[in-house]
Amino acid sequence: MDRLNGSVVTEFVLLALTCSSRTKFVLILICSLFYLGIFLGNLLILFLVIFDSHLHSPMYFLLANLSLIDVGLSSTTVPKIITDLINEYKVISFQGCMAQICFIHTIGGVEMVLLIAMAFDRYTAICKPLHYLKIMSPKTCVSFVVTAWVTGVIHAMSQFAFVINLPFCGPNKLDSFYCDFPKVIKLACTDGAKYEFIVSANSGFMSMGTFLLLILSYVFILLTVWKRSSGDLSKAFVTLSAHITVVFLFFIPCMFLYVWPSPPPSIDKNLFVVDFAITPVLNPAIYTLRNKEIKIAIKRLNKKKSIARFR
Question: Given CB 3.0 to 4.6 Å as the disulfide criterion, which of 4, 95, 103, 296 pairs with 76?
Answer without folding.
Answer: 103
